[in-house]
Structures
1.
Amino acid sequence: MSTFHKLSLLISLAENGSVRRAAKARGLSASVVAGHVAEFEEWLGEHCLVPERRYARLTPIGEQVLGLGRQIEAAQHELARMAGGAGQCTRAPSLAQLRTLQAFARHQTLTRASERLNITQAAATRRLQALQAQLGAVLLVTEGRLLRLTPTGTAILRPAEAALACWSRIEALRRGARPASLLVEVGLTELTALTWFPALIAEIRRSLPQLSLHPDVDHGTPLARRLLANQLDAAILPRRMAPPALISLPLGSVPFAWLARPDVLPSGCILSVAELASVPLLVQGRGSGINRELEALFAGQQVQPVRSFASNHLSALGGFLEAGLGAACLPRSLFVNQLLDGRLVELTTDIPAPSVEYCLVLRHGASHLGELIAPIARAAFPWSD
C-alpha cells in the first residue's frame, strides 16, 4: 500500500475514534489498519496519534496531517465528480498518476512529460490509461498526430494540483527530511532575463532552497497564452499584458529612455514626439509590452512614425542603434557603457519616455507561489523606490 493510501487509513482512524471501528468501516482487519498507520508514522518520523491510548487522539502534528489529508480527499472527490465517474471510481488516483497528468498538461507531449518525471514514455502512458480507467472518463484524445487533453482532462487539473500541493506540505512536515523540491516554471521577457533575474535566483536559493526556478524566455503575448493554458506556473510580465482572469501581483516600474547615435538626432535640446517620428524607430517585436506604450504615445499626439525596424532581441536593437539606423525607446540600464563612451546619447523629449509596470502573474491554482515569490521578487527588483 502506498504512503498516500496509508494516509487515508489514518484519516479513517481519526474520524472513527478507534482502530476497531476504522477497520470495520474500511473492511479490513484491525491489525492491518494499525500496521499501516504505524508505517505512515514511521515514514513521517513523527507520532500522529498519542501513544498508548485506547482511543485515537491526535498529536499537534497529527492535527496538521489530518487537515491536509482531508483537503486531499476533498480534492479527490471533486476530481471524480468533475470527471463524471464518481460512481465508478472505487480507488483514489495515485500521486504518480496525478503528477503525470500535471506534467502532460504543462509540456503538451508525453515525451517531454516523461523526461521531466524521469520515467519512460511507456510508464507515463500506463499511468494515464490507469487514471482514465479509475475515473471512468476520457481524459486524452488524439487529434491528428497529437495527443490532447479533453475538456474533462483540463477540468480535473485544478483539483489534481490542489491534492498535490497538500501532499507537498505533508512531505515538508517529515522530521529530518530535506525540504521537498518544488519545481516552478516561470516565464520571463528578455529584459527581465538580462537585468535582475540573476539577483532573484540568488535570493531565492538563499531564502527558499526548496524552490527550483526553471526560466522560459519569450515575449509577453505568448507567455500570457501559456499561463492561461497552465503551461507555466508564473510569469513576470508588463502589467498591460497580464490576462485579467489571472492573479497579478505588482513588482515595480522599469524606466525607459529615448536613445540614438549622436548624429541621428540632437541631444542638447528638447525634442517633440513629431521630431522623434521623423527618423526610423527601432522597436521590439509585436509581442513586446513597450510597443503598446509607444503606440499609445504616438496615437495620442496624432503622429505616425516614418517607418520602423523591429527585432525580437534587445542586443540586436543595440547594434542597430550604434549603426545609426534610427532611435529607440529602451531600458537605459542596458546601455550605460554605450552612453558613457559616447556611442549613444540619451534624447530629451517634451513628453517623457514611458515606463513599463511589471507584475508577477500566476496561473490558476498557483496563488500559494505568490506568497513565496512576490516579496523576494520585489526586494530584488532594481528599480524599486
Note: The longest strand covers residues 247-260.
2.
Amino acid sequence: MEKLTYCRFCNEKHIVSETFDKHGTVVGMFCNREKALITAFTVEWNGEDISGPISRFVDFNTDKAILRNIKGDKLRGLAKKLAYQFIQSTYAKDRKINYAFAVHVTLDELFKLREQVYHMPREVFE
C-alpha cells in the first residue's frame, strides 16, 4: 500500500511504499525516488532479529580507524557496500533479506560503531 509521507531523502511529502517481509509484516516505508528505506518499524525480518548478525558482520568488516573520521555521506555509501556483501551471505540468502532493509539496519549499526570508536583514545589506532 502507498501512503503520502514526508521523505527525509527528498525533503518533501510524496507517496512512498510499504516494505513487507516474507510473512507479510510491514517492516518500513520505502522511497521509490531514492530507492531507499525511509524508516524501519522493526529490526526483525520474518520474525527474526537481524541486528545481531549485521552488527557482527559490520564489526568484523569495518576498519575502525577510518570509521572514526568518515563523514555522513560516505557512511551511507559504506553501509550500501556492507549491506550488499551481507545479503550475499548464506545467512541472508536463506532468509531472503531485502537489500534496502539491510542497508537501513547496517547504517544504524555503523552509526553505533562510529560512536563507540569516537570515544576510544587515539593511541588504540596507532
Note: The longest strand covers residues 12-20.
